Amino acid sequence: MKNFFALVALLHGVFPEQVSEASEGGLHGAIELSPQAAHVQNLVASEDGLFVYISPEQKDTVNEKVRDIILDTRIGYMRTGIYFDTWTHDNSVSGGEKKTQMARIKKNFSRKIHSSLLPVYVVYTESPPEEEAVEERTTFIFSTLWENVFRCYYAVYSAVYTLQSFSVPPNDVLFLDYENEKVAAHNEAKRSAPEMARLQETAVSLFGEYRKLFPISENTVYKNIYFGLQDDAKFLEIEEMKPGDSDTASAKRRTEALSTLYEKVDTLYPYRALEEEKRFRVTIIKRKTRKILNHEEVVRIINQFGESIKKKKGARLDVTEVFLEDMELGEQLALIKNTDVFIALHGASLGHTMFMRKEAFIIELFPYCFRKTIYKNIARHTGVKYIRWQNFHLNLTCGTIPLEKLKKCEINWSSGDSRDFYRAQDTGVNVSEFVGLLRAILDYEDLVEENFLLYTPWEQFNNQRLAFKAACIVANKLDRILVLPYAGYRSEEETKRIQQEADDYENSVKEKDDTLFNPKKYHWAPLEKYFKPASFGSLPCRTITMAAFEMIDSGSNIRAVLDNTKKTVGRYNPSQSLAYYADVHSIVPRRIERVYNIGAEVPDDMVIPVYGQYRAKTLALGMLFNKLNFGQEKTYPLARFYDYMEDDIYEKITSNMLPTAYQEKAARQITLKSGKSTFGLSVHIRRADYAIKCKNHKEIAPESYNSCYQDAEYITDYINGLLGTKTGVNIHIATDAVDTDELKNIEVFKKHKVFFMKDIIGEYEGYLDHIEKSIVEQIICTQSDIFVGNFLSSFTRDIVENRATTSCFW
Fold first, then answer.
1. In this structure, are residues 453 and 627 in contact, taking their beta carbons and an 8 Å threshold?
2. Mutual orientation of helices 306-313 and 431-442 as an angle, nearest 10°?
3. Half-sphere exposure of residue 197, counting CA atoms within 13 Å on the CB side?
4. Of the ranges 329-343, 348-362, 397-411, which one carries the lowest mean pLDDT score?
5. Which CATH number among 3.40.50.150, 3.30.2130.10, 3.40.50.11340, 3.30.565.10 corresponds to the domain 448-653?
6. Are 682 and 780 in contact (CB under 8 A)?
7. Which residues in the chain are classed under CATH 3.40.50.11340?
8. Which residues neighbour 25 within 8 Å (Cβ) at sequence distance 6 or greater?
């Protein structure tokens, strides 16, 4: 068996380095180093500390190898470190040199943000002390950050990972808990139940014997003791695993360590041991803090799936609601092993991911703004089906975070206070979104046989909405399920940068292209946040949420087909699509093809010849804005508005894309701030990056420049011609201008009552994100008595297509 583990280590590229060798007889020890870990033979633990006795002839070699090494005993901040002290008991080292050595250790120590240091004294002698009580078992020094389920499991897993890197099977291990005073006080403050006081000991005892390292009541020699946690053992907490990451040597070692733990727990708590009849068990975790605000509603929705589960699974639905902190650890494991769907707000209880069956599902719920990836990455290693639900609705959160801070989501991930600040929210779960996840779980076996379509949402939301309609048509033609993308809008800083680019028209085309769409500088949220739930159930294409899709395909079966021509829109290039997939969804397609023959605004019947030739399980396309012509043969440069609603399939998609009740309510209440229930006139005036677009338009079609960009004189003439001698009309100006004073001071508006969104948004400020503001503003324009828009604008198009009365164009 020892040779087998040595072979595994060799294949994985792990080569422990023998620093010294133990002498025969006596208590001479030896030190063997592996990356971030150590194996010590014959380590002596006494009330004076930890010692290893080395033959003097090995002094120079040992000193060189262990110099400045600090080995972690746990993962996380407030870490404890072990180092080899080669100077304290060496009479040949001067006092000054001893201080220098210690100062260097402390410097390295502070860089690693430890909370305490533990020395292992290296003593060079020909005559080690007499042999004491001997512990023959494999021994491991560890510690936990604090006593919760996940940290205890993580500590044991990390120990197993390290032992296997030394080719040591983790059987009958003695775990020595090194808990310094600061951590002990921290744990004591967190204990709220008797079970918590035993959690660490109980968790470790599943895999070996648990003891505390200190105080040492009897001098003991540990024949083979290990300590140190390797960086490769850690699971990413903020970033997601990419496709292919699971094929790396370190990922395989992580999976091997998890499998070792799983097999042990599986023998203690086998699947279905609790049941006499077939059940489909849904376990939902209740918490005394960080609660699900509508917990009862969520449970009621789950129970409504009882009949569907009976038909689909041939099992009775059993919904279990538990406070895990009130259960013994063994009870928790027995429950989790027999759970089919595990639902919990982000927290330590999701550490049970390590021991769930591959056939099981996890739904991890996140509050507004806060999100980590550690449990998703663990699930990727164990094979458990993982779904992430994020609250993107600010009005569904409750906590102590000031609104101004919360809406910015400026989490400092290196600060425990900052993380806890955002994590400690009570969260309402959007029921319609939750239902979609449950349906995906129920239909999982069918969905894995389906083919899917992804595409790139691009630039402004109205372009993204038009692209969605094109994507729905493409998915319909190809008989693929359309994955609902995220919708995005530029950050405040990026918006200001765009305005600077617009003001500086001398910039190169490339600089402008890069500025206009950079996915990293956008805020993203699921598209379904912005429409009524029923919107996606009546479309001519089948859809699935991105969260449900990620459960089915993590990217390994994705083929990207990207348009590499600028015939569609000059500001688009394929790198933008790849950046969107990677930065927003952690998707890196296995195959990427750049094609040149697609073109812009092609007829619908061109979809199958262009995209139907690709047989990948998931097809990832580029930007689809302006990809289809929706039955309209246009003449460029554009001189009029083309009505896409004449296309039946386009009209069906548009008619079903309905704003949410929250948006409709906001539009009504914001309009009332003007003193009336509707505006007499709403106008759409483009500014910001449109200055760049319209300057280009002026060069190629000067006769229609005023339709693209309106100056003060043109606006005055047009509004006077429209309203005549009327005064005091309530006018709403919809604009993307950063500075609205320029528009407010136009002569014609001085004899009317002019309102900008920012002036009347009132209590909705902060609760509506940029896209929601845009939709609310479109609703306001849709309901106005008169609307004047820009026929070159997709923002205007969305308004015109939903108005019951005629619209005007600049």
1. no
2. 10
3. 4
4. 397-411
5. 3.40.50.11340
6. yes
7. 448-653
8. none
| Spatial contact of 337 and 356, defined as CB atoms under 8 Å apart | yes
pLDDT, tens digit (0-9, with 9 covering 90-100), for 100-151: 888 888 887 776 666 688 999 999 999 898 877 899 999 999 888 777 889 8
Residues 6+ apart with CB under 8 A from 219: 44, 45, 46, 47, 132, 133
Rg (CA), the chain: 32
- How far apart are alpha carbons 263 and 253 in whole angstroms? 15
For the 661-809 domain, the top CATH level (class) is alpha beta
Which residue in the block uniquely carries the two structure tokens 């005993």?
Answer: 73
Domain 245-258+271-439: state its class.
alpha beta
Distance, CA of 380 to CA of 621 (rounded, Å): 25
CB 374 within 8 A of CB 236: yes
Nearest to 130 by CA among 26, 53, 22: 26
Question: Whose CA is closest to 625, among 770, 775, 516, 779?
Answer: 516
Per-position DSSP letters for 307-349, written without gaps between them: HHHHHHHSSEEEEEEE-GGGS-HHHHHHHHHT-SEEEEESSGG
pLDDT in tens, 369-408: 888 899 999 998 999 999 999 998 887 877 666 666 666 6
DSSP 677-722: SS-SEEEEE--TTHHHHHHHHHHH-GGGHHHH---HHHHHHHHHHH
Q: What is the pTM of this model?
A: 0.85
Instruction: Report the number of secondary-structure helices (H) and strands (E) in the chain.
Output: 30, 31
Res 802 pLDDT > 70: yes
Contact 352, 332 (CB under 8 A): yes
How confident is the model at residue 513, as a pLDDT? 47
The single-letter code of the amino acid at 220 is T
pLDDT at position 434 is 93
Query: Which among 776, 723, 782 has a CA at the least distance from the CA of 754?
Result: 723
Q: What are 12's two structure tokens? A: 């994985």
Instruction: Enumerate the CATH 3.40.50.11350 domain ranges in the chain, comma separated.
Output: 661-809
Strands 481-483 and 452-456: parallel
Task: Please report the DSSP string for 156-206 in residue order.
Answer: HHHHHHHHHHTT----SEEEEE---HHHHHHHHHH--SHHHHHHHHHHHHT
262, two tokens: 């799983």
CA distance 473 to 464: 14
Largest CA distance in the chain: 111
As beta bridge partners, residue 292 has 427
Nearest-10 crossing angle of helices 461-478, 648-656: 120
Q: At what angle do helices 661-672 and 770-783 cross, to 10 degrees?
A: 60
Instruction: Please tell me the distance from the alpha carbon of residue 696 to that of residue 702, in angstroms, as a whole number.
Output: 10
Rounded Cα gap, residues 182 and 190, in angstroms:
13
CA–CA dist 351, 375 (Å, integer):
7
Mutual orientation of helices 329-337 and 249-268 as an angle, nearest 10°?
A: 110
Band the pLDDT of 19: cuts 50, 70, 90.
low
Q: What are the structure tokens assigned to 737, written together?
A: 């201008």
Pair of tokens at residue 501: 């680019």
